[in-house]
Design a protein that fits this description.
heterodimer; A: mainly alpha; Fumarate Reductase Cytochrome B subunit; 74% helix; B: Fumarate Reductase Iron-sulfur Protein, Chain B, domain 2; Rossmann fold; 3 domains; 4-stranded parallel beta sheet; globular
Chain lengths: 227, 434
């Protein structure tokens, strides 16, 4: 078994297993905790808990006007990263081919040029986030090892992905064999590292954000706080 | 997280527990707080630090140690070590350190002196983490460990003995008689039966007696069957702020039980923010689904009286700006009620730059106003509010919380500022139409 076969075989299975089981374990571990019911009478005319949760989940997508001036940098950089990453993962033709092999699902790819720009923006936003975390007093004082590990396992697939992208995606997909086997294996292994770390660190916010915002939305709507 | 910057903060201790026992008591209490909502909120933080810019203590000082989420560090560690889904692994590998007594002492300043539980940070958090609520829960553990500011502990002891931080209940009739004589308004006390049980904040029995007299004036005007009662009169609930759950329950029960005893259907809360938080949203915690009385804040009461036409007010016809008390507005949902009352009074409202849900706290909530050693920090925060009030150029500066007024009055005195916050209740009473 060569490195690529390992990355495509047992390593991928292991990473997916850790990702799925770990995420479920953490999520269930949180949701099984006691649910302290709010027994106070709701504000007259209050939205339902579900409507309150949904409102908070959606409203949390952009900052309030009062905070815009102090959060615009974090907001812009955050959007640059998340949108860029989503475009790269879901829009790049070889990624779609990879998902199709695993699941049978596929969708139209975006042009390579868009991918290169998106990857560049994503990498740049990650570098900016790292510099900010290491130099800004607030971020420095609240950071812990999870921040650096999560940053690293997010950055590595982007780096190795760029290294593995030596020719247009059409050319890559037209062949039946992999030419750049080692770079591709490293790219896969780095993505698998991300999957393995996902349940244990702050990357889990990709799942938890909706629950967390929703819980506050329920609290606020119960009180008639129109947040 | 790194150690706090700046000089070592002061801390106080209560009781004779040894260091290890204090840490264990805090940890045990911290862990007990983790229901699903608290756990989701601790788990979801991505340490983006945006909460810092929303916090008046950080904005006023620029010191990163006041970053709101950082104030929860011992609480966070307790969760991941003892209650989180991976706790056994975390403990076995010591991936998250147990807080030390030194750290708990250091965090006393962050949880009590430099957090008013105002919840502005909650609104800025992209994960929707309710940091204010978590701070309140962390305070429970600090109280169990005997690690709260001594001034607050002193008030706690008074309230445990008297049922109020202001006065023993048996002195209430005499105090009310004095207020009644001073302001020329009848204030019924200890009536065996009434429709409305009226409560007070401690300041209304001392520096703000006009507020109490004005509430009486309005209640008498509408012909309400009301009374105050020595068995349940102080709504401020120091237990809520101190993290003393047993006291919080006792003070809450005193109010509700007294209301039930006299057959009151309404429990009227004073112009006090934390009284609203403790009674309106937490009283039911000990009473089950159906509270036997309606709990209502003075601002809601005034709004309802004016809206229903039960009282009419003269129009003042001046400009005013309004300080939104956090527990009543941002955490209480009464943003519109005060503004309707101001409009009825004929004020042209000039909003503060930050108002409504995102208004800045006065700096004294959560017991900070009573915590003497926090005064220098409070005064720095006051400058934020002072600047915003001055920018409006409004003739009147109004609020609907007595604790906010005390904080802002103290800040104004310290800064030599000639503007004094006015009570919405007093403005209504002073302008009742015939």
């Amino acid at each position: 078994m060569d490195l690529l076969e390992f990355a495509r075989g047992p390593a991928l299975v292991f990473a997916l297993a850790v990702f799925v089981l770990g995420t479920l374990w953490r999520l269930i571990g949180i949701l099984r905790l006691p649910r302290l019911r709010d027994r106070s009478p709701a504000r007259e005319g209050a939205a339902s808990p579900a409507a309150g949760a949904l409102h908070a989940i959606v409203r949390g997508m952009w900052p309030r006007r009062a905070f815009a001036a102090t959060t615009h940098f974090a907001t812009f950089n955050g959007y640059a990263f998340h949108v860029g990453l989503a475009l790269v993962f879901f829009g790049y033709a070889p990624h779609i081919a990879f998902v199709r092999r695993l699941t049978g699902l596929s969708w139209p790819a975006l042009p390579d040029a868009v991918m290169y720009v998106a990857a560049g923006v994503t990498i740049a936003s990650l570098l900016v986030a790292l510099v900010w975390r290491l130099t800004d007093p607030v971020r420095r004082t609240i950071s812990n090892a999870d921040d650096l590990i999560s940053w690293t396992v997010t950055f590595l697939p982007l780096l190795t992905g760029m290294a593995a992208t030596a020719e247009p995606s059409a050319a890559i997909l037209a062949r039946n064999q992999v030419v750049y086997a080692t770079p591709l294996a490293l790219h896969l292994l780095s993505a698998e590292l991300l999957l393995i770390w996902f349940p244990f660190g702050k990357l889990m916010h990709a799942v938890l954000f909706a629950f967390s915002r929703g819980a506050t939305g329920v609290r606020f709507s119960h009180r008639g706080v129109e947040a | 997280m790194s150690a706090a910057s700046g000089p070592t903060p002061g801390f106080d201790r209560q009781g004779e527990l040894g260091d290890e026992a204090r840490v264990d008591a805090a940890m045990k209490s911290f862990v007990r707080e983790f229901g699903v909502t608290a756990a989701l909120h601790v788990e979801s933080c991505v340490r983006c630090g945006q909460c810092a810019e929303a916090c008046h203590f950080y904005r006023a000082t620029g010191d990163a140690k006041y970053t709101p989420i950082r104030k929860l560090e011992p609480f966070r560690r307790a969760y991941f070590r003892e209650a989180g889904p991976f706790a056994p692994i975390v403990r076995a590998l010591n991936l998250v350190r147990k807080p030390t007594i030194g750290e708990l002492e250091q965090w006393q300043e962050l949880l009590f002196d430099s957090c008013t539980m105002c919840g502005r940070c909650t609104l800025v958090c992209p994960m929707g983490i309710d940091i204010a609520e978590l701070v309140k829960e962390a305070r429970h553990g600090m109280f169990k460990a005997g690690l709260v500011p001594e001034r607050l502990a002193l008030m706690d002891r008074a309230a445990r003995q008297w049922g109020s931080t202001a006065t023993p209940g048996e002195d209430l009739p005499d105090i009310l008689a004095e207020v009644s004589a001073e302001h020329g308004v009848p204030i019924p006390c200890d009536l065996p039966s009434a429709d409305i049980l009226v409560t007070a904040a401690p300041a209304e029995l001392d520096a703000h007696t006009k507020s109490l007299a004005d509430a009486a004036r309005i209640l008498n005007r509408i012909g309400a069957r009301w009374t105050m009662h020595r068995e349940g009169f102080d709504a401020s609930n120091i237990g809520f702020n101190n993290g003393d759950l047993a006291l919080q329950e006792r003070l809450t029960r005193a109010l509700i039980d007294t209301a039930v005893k006299i057959g009151a259907k309404t429990l009227l809360l004073p112009e006090c923010g934390h009284a609203y938080g403790a009674a309106r949203w937490e009283a039911a915690r000990w009473y089950g689904d159906a509270l036997p009385v309606r709990i209502i804040h003075m601002t809601e009461f005034l709004d309802e009286l004016i809206s229903s036409g039960r009282i009419r007010v003269n129009r003042i016809g001046a400009t005013a700006t309004f300080h939104d008390p956090c527990q009543i507005v941002r955490r209480g949902g009464l943003e519109a009620a005060a503004r309707r009352v101001l409009a009825a009074l004929g004020f042209e409202l000039i909003e503060l730059q930050d108002h409504g849900l995102t208004g800045y706290c006065c700096g004294g909530g959560g017991g900070v106003v009573s915590n003497q050693r926090a005064a220098p920090l409070r005064y720095k925060v006051f400058d934020l509010k002072k600047g915003q009030v001055e920018a409006t150029g409004a003739e009147h500066f109004v609020t609907s919380c007595g604790q906010c007024r005390i904080t802002l009055e103290a800040g104004a005195r310290n800064a030599g500022w000639d503007k004094s916050p006015e009570s919405l209740l007093e403005l209504v009473a002073d302008n009742l139409a015939d």
